[in-house]
Amino acid sequence: MNASPRRKELTRLAAQLFVQEGFDRTTVRMLAQEMGIKSGSLFHHFKDKQEILAAVIEEGTQNALIIARKALDECAADPEIRLRTMARAHLETLFTDRNAHVVALFEWRRLDPEARAHLSHLRDAYEALWVTVIDDALEAGLIRGDRFLVSRFVLGALNWTVRWYDPNGPRSPDDLADELVAMIMPAST
Amino acid sequence: MNASPRRKELTRLAAQLFVQEGFDRTTVRMLAQEMGIKSGSLFHHFKDKQEILAAVIEEGTQNALIIARKALDECAADPEIRLRTMARAHLETLFTDRNAHVVALFEWRRLDPEARAHLSHLRDAYEALWVTVIDDALEAGLIRGDRFLVSRFVLGALNWTVRWYDPNGPRSPDDLADELVAMIMPAST
Amino acid sequence: MNASPRRKELTRLAAQLFVQEGFDRTTVRMLAQEMGIKSGSLFHHFKDKQEILAAVIEEGTQNALIIARKALDECAADPEIRLRTMARAHLETLFTDRNAHVVALFEWRRLDPEARAHLSHLRDAYEALWVTVIDDALEAGLIRGDRFLVSRFVLGALNWTVRWYDPNGPRSPDDLADELVAMIMPAST
Amino acid sequence: MNASPRRKELTRLAAQLFVQEGFDRTTVRMLAQEMGIKSGSLFHHFKDKQEILAAVIEEGTQNALIIARKALDECAADPEIRLRTMARAHLETLFTDRNAHVVALFEWRRLDPEARAHLSHLRDAYEALWVTVIDDALEAGLIRGDRFLVSRFVLGALNWTVRWYDPNGPRSPDDLADELVAMIMPAST
DNA sequence: CATGAATGAGAATTCATTCAT
DNA sequence: TATGAATGAATTCTCATTCAT
After folding, report:
1. Which Gene3D superfamilies did the record assign (chains A, B, C, D) (predicted)?
2. C43 part of a folded domain
């Protein structure tokens, strides 16, 4: 709702702590300290600890959506390129805005029902992008299988990277994306 | 350590609660109630809340290892069959022993360092099985790509199923496994 | 560390309860009630139950040190007078600040190692005062014996008074002190 | 009451733990373990944790009484020798049966009222011995002062030794006793 | 006598949240 | 906006004691 720059900064710091410690284990005092204020003051910026979680996830998902849309808008219409672009965009957000996304992926269950309902829309919008890209690739014969299953598998493989990918290692996120796309395309020759 | 049948039963119930509520949100009182004892009695069977978590994960991982080994032992030596078998075994454990596995996948971070070290060995042993299967498939030209990346992608896609797969839906876990294998094999013709 | 007047008052009340019930038997709830706050609020002022104990003992020992130093500074240089002064000062603190001292004497073992180390310094400083006084008395031929033993015996006799002395009885603390000094001086004639 | 040799052994072990940890901090489980049985079994030997404490103190006080009586019976009738003998006997029991005595001295408050009443008699009997010895010494002009105060001071000085005396150091308990007696006798020349 | 499992009444401590200043 | 003190409900864990076997 409120999107003051201060609040945005606080959200960023909260994301980091939520990733490090998990939502439940992150105390309001830890959040406040990280933000350089006292715990009482936090409640001037956020109604709730819940609201902080929602802010983190909303921020992350919204960014992902923007980046993906922009990337798709800017790239060629070729299905293979679009697939690759989407995979790259996904990993790019996942690692530039990693904290928010890890929170979105692994603390979703901690959201209260209202927030969950609100944010589900955003999440669905993002997944819808994927479905169109997958559909096009299927239609073009680039890949085979059930559209639903394929998109789930691909998203799973991509999301799971947060568990093992080391950004300081030799491979770039773009490499990863390309490898995944290559893996599921029968014959890129 | 201690493996009384009572403890095993308690572990199973704990897994269920951990999945429903998350580890941090599951109180020892909830655990005790589910087990039909009083919270004080819990500490006869487990030293700690932590130890319950470790027991759940150990149990689950050990089962997965046993099932996968047995399945591989019993199946033919053909790389494609082995790959399919491994994927099926993975999903089978994931859904027959779902609770333990969801806990293992999503509450791993809540383990204390010692338990984590201990259980890492088990986890590694399991992943090693995957790597051999993937290696064979690569060598046989069934699939292409980096062995490390491929196994990570496949495991990610499979593990992520716990987030969306509905066992009461039209597809069986074996279907899922077959579809995934088909997806990554260039040309099964 | 923190020496807010509030904390000082709380420390005083804690000392009383620790004497009445013993440290281990005094619950934080009892402490809080005596202080007119709720148990949770206690931890705003003290990190720990341990810290309360340490505060009580520190407060008491510091007072004893100040009183003894001042008394010695103000009295004549005559060894006998100094000895009597020190004994009187000891009993004076022992009975004006009785609670803190009883805690210091009988709950010392309940301190955790760090607090013990910290407070040992204070205690040593106080005992050092005694040793100089005893040394002077020995040198002047007022008393005889090993300086170490004599000071231990004298301190023992004085400290033990908290076990039997009744402040409402006929004798004043100063009487006690004088009697003790008389007892150990061969011939005051 | 019951004085089986087994019970006596258990009492000895309990005394040790009570000294090491303090009565309140010694759990029934610790006691049982030290005794090589399980905590449930302890209650076949003692009705209560309280009863163990009472047994420890009773045992110790009774021994002190026996030793002191025997020592006085065997020594000459000379008041100075009797005084020295009593002091030596006190320290001897204090250090051969140290644990029981430290418990008696420092955990007395933890006794419940009945046990306290019962054991007070024993304690009084022991102190009565002291008073006769002190009286004789006063009458003989060996020492001066109020009989009550003198005996309190002497007992205090002796009891306090458990706080600082190192049995492995150069001085024997008998040395200590002699030094104390010398200290309070005007002119032993 | 011994045991192991269970109990239930606390114990210390934590923590999101409130609110007067 | 910020703070610091307070709250109260909840949390993990402890422990003397009981009792069926």
Report:
1. Tetracycline Repressor, domain 2 (1.10.357.10)
2. no
Helix ranges, B36-97 (H): 39-45, 49-74, 79-96
Q: Cβ separation of B22 and A25 shorter than 8 Å?
A: no
pLDDT band at residue D189 using 50, 70 and 90 as cut-offs: very low
Asked if A23 and A107 touch (Cβ cutoff 8 Å), the reply is yes
C5 CB neighbours strand F below 7 A: no
CATH for B63: 1.10.357.10
pLDDT, average across residues B4-24: 91
> How many CA within 13 A on the CB side of residue A64?
32
Q: What is the mean pLDDT of chain D?
A: 92
3-state secondary structure at position A1: coil
A175-189, B90-104, B112-126: the lowest-pLDDT one: A175-189
Whether residue C23 contacts residue D22, with contact meaning beta carbons closer than 8 Å, is answered with no
Q: Is the shortest CB-to-strand distance from D37 to strand F under 7 Å?
A: no
Best of B21, B102, B127, B160 to mutate (most A CBs within 10 Å, chain A)? B160
Q: State the pLDDT at residue A187.
A: 62
D164 vs C146: CB contact, 8 Å cut-off?
no
User: What would the two tokens of residue B20 be?
Assistant: 């429903």
Domain count, chain C: 1
Question: CA-CA distance, C136 to C122, in Å (whole number)?
Answer: 22
What 3-state class would DSSP assign to D89? helix
Q: What is the pLDDT of residue C173?
A: 95
Is residue D14, in this structure, part of any structural domain at all?
Answer: no
Residue B141 lies in a domain: yes
Residue C108 lies in a domain: yes
SS3 of residue D112 by DSSP: coil
D37 CA → F12 C1’, Å: 28
| Pairs of residues, one from chain C and one from chain D, whose beta carbons lie less than 8 Å apart | 84
Distance D40 CA to E3 C1' (A): 7
User: Which of B34, B29, B27 lies closest to B10, judged by CA?
Assistant: B34
Nearest Cα residue to D90 out of D4, D159, D13, D14? D159
- Interface contact B22-A106, CB threshold 8 A: no
Structure tokens given for C30: 């009892």
Tens-digit pLDDT profile for residues D29-63 = 999 999 999 999 999 999 999 999 999 999 999 99
Nucleotide nearest to C25 (CA to C1'): E11
The pLDDT value given to residue A189: 45
Among C152, C159, C175, C189, most D C-beta atoms within 10 A, so best to mutate, is: C152
Asked if the Cβ–Cβ distance from C155 to D160 is below 8 Å, we say yes
